[in-house]
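Example 9 (inverse folding). The structure is encoded as follows.
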């Protein structure tokens, strides 16, 4: 999977879709306004203008353009996708009691939990208004289902967290909820709004789903070996927060009695001591858990790339292909 990183794929996407993204940003600013509650645009602007990559709305725009769409409504759907994403971030930071997001204080820290939850609810409502404007019930169904899957994934993560009985199958359901559901909905609605053939719409769904899973596994792996500048958080944060991500689940599945006792202490009981992160890494290394998780990420990236074969030949298709390679290239 060789990749020329002279310019990152999401930067190339942003360049190719710059006019569309400008329209999306204008629509976002217009729809995040509130005549009666000035705190809504304050909280929303704090997060939306924090310099995120805007990858999800770009996936919607790219999918629509790739399938030959020339109407205005891909912009509405891209804005809806970004509002759903922003709403989930606001809610996530409350649930996780986070103090930082993209290197800045979180909204719940600057304002309060109530503001974050209620503004998140407002953005979900705005997203649904935007979804209805193209007048396509299928588009509404896809994004509504994705919103339900995201919420379901968050609740599942709550119950699966710190439970050593969590399997790879449960982990995959959580990942589909927290990451892949919005990726796949973003790409799928782009194809639907463009009136693409069913095979192309299905390929776009498969691409988004596989890309999202590869992206999340890579993110979880980097927590055990990335740098803070690459991952936007400190190495070992997931371990300290006792999150059962894929490398840890794989190591637990192969644990002997002594190793299992260690996992029970540090993950289930939360009794973490000096040197425990190094011990966790040593156990994962001993069982090849990090390598096995990396191999899984590469398989999902390959699935994403394979799905693109059913789509029209287009410069954007190559960038989407490069993006699949890029999300796992950080694991090299």
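The amino acid assigned to each position is listed next.
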């Amino acid at each position: 999977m060789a990749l020329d990183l002279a310019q990152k794929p999401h930067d190339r996407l942003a360049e190719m879709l710059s006019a569309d993204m400008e329209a999306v940003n204008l629509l976002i600013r217009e729809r995040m306004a509130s005549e009666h509650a000035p705190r809504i645009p304050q909280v929303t602007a704090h997060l939306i203008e924090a310099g995120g990559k805007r990858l999800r709305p770009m996936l919607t725009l790219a999918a629509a353009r790739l399938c030959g769409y020339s109407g205005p409504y891909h912009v509405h759907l891209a804005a809806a996708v970004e509002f759903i994403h922003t709403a989930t971030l606001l809610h996530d930071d409350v649930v996780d009691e986070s103090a930082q997001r993209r290197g800045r204080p979180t909204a719940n820290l600057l304002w309060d939990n109530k503001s974050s939850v209620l503004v998140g609810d407002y953005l979900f409502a705005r997203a649904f208004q935007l979804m209805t404007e193209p007048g396509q019930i299928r588009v509404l169904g896809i994004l509504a289902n994705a919103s339900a899957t995201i919420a379901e994934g968050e609740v599942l993560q709550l119950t699966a967290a710190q439970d050593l009985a969590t399997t790879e199958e449960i982990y995959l359901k959580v990942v589909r909820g927290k990451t892949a559901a919005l990726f796949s909905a973003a790409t799928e609605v782009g194809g639907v709004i463009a009136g693409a053939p069913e095979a192309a719409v299905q390929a776009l769904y498969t691409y988004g789903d596989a890309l999202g899973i590869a992206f999340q596994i890579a993110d979880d792996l980097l927590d055990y070996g990335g740098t803070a500048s690459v991952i936007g958080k400190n190495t070992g944060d997931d371990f300290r927060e006792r999150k059962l991500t894929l490398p840890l689940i794989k190591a637990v599945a192969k644990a002997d009695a002594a190793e299992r006792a260690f996992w029970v202490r540090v993950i289930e009981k939360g009794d973490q001591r000096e040197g425990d992160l190094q011990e966790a890494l040593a156990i994962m290394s001993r069982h090849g858990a990090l390598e096995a998780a990396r191999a899984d990420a590469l398989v999902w990236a390959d699935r994403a790339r394979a799905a693109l074969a059913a789509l029209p030949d287009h410069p954007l298709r190559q960038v989407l292909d490069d993006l699949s390679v890029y999300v796992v290239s950080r694991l090299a």
